[in-house]
């Protein structure tokens, strides 16, 4: 059979389309503390595409962020232990090429920092990462992989970070001190420190930037912080101690991980009460909302999986297998 030039062109074009489509597939990233890997999962099928090793013996990452074009993932290597505990201090961020499915570079801080929560700011284009031992949030240019500055938090154990939607304000959950630092991300200064409890964990912000949420580690309750007054406005009772949280895009609901009950609690942000609970895997940790707002992904550290919640019916429709001690989540469009 003779293949004409126009047929070759058609075959080449089809191949190109398939390649681009594959490269542009939606990928769920799961950072697995237990086996020191980052799982790259086809979000549509739940199929594991690759498990990229940290390649850093004795230490592991906890969280991940993806740059604007979805090409690179940034995985800070926290260390060998948990927050506030003795152990090896991590000092770098690994850069993963998502399409190539391998580590292609790193950002070296020069000394132990326990870098933890990375967050890409769409407004400035900068990558922020909490650097606990320096009591700061370090600023990195995601295009050059270079450190370009820092914002002091004024507190130790600044573990998690959330930004206002315009990128002007940052809020860190300072675990051991039980406080939240309020940061001016443009001026790179600390605006204030909000006392919350004897210890806190995780942090999120409402769709309108008026409220910040963090879980009280001492009691089964959620602190609701008014960003205008920089004070705790109220407390929301929870079925058990809360952990990771995430607000829905419509501003109506807040999802809260309840690790001890293997559940996610759904808080009605109008009544400020738990409206329902959803059964998920063991020891729910972190919640990631899909960009279209239809699904929520919940990492379950004790069952090595990610629960997928359909937000239209408030039910976990399936579970995606991940690595050992699945924790941090990120999305590549």
Q: What key attributes describe this structure?
A:
single chain; 333 residues; mainly beta; Methylamine Dehydrogenase, Chain H; four-stranded antiparallel sheet; 1 helix; globular; disordered N terminus
List the helices and strands and how they pair.
Layout: H1 5-23, E1 27-32, E2 37-42, E3 48-53, E4 60-61, E5 65-66, E6 72-79, E7 89-97, E8 102-108, E9 115-120, E10 127-131, E11 136-141, E12 146-152, E13 158-163, E14 169-174, E15 179-184, E16 189-195, E17 200-205, E18 211-216, E19 221-226, E20 231-237, E21 245-247, E22 253-258, E23 263-268, E24 273-279, E25 284-289, E26 295-300, E27 305-310, E28 315-321, E29 326-332
Antiparallel strand pairs: 1-2, 1-29, 2-3, 4-6, 5-6, 6-7, 7-8, 9-10, 10-11, 11-12, 13-14, 14-15, 15-16, 17-18, 18-19, 19-20, 21-22, 22-23, 23-24, 25-26, 26-27, 27-28
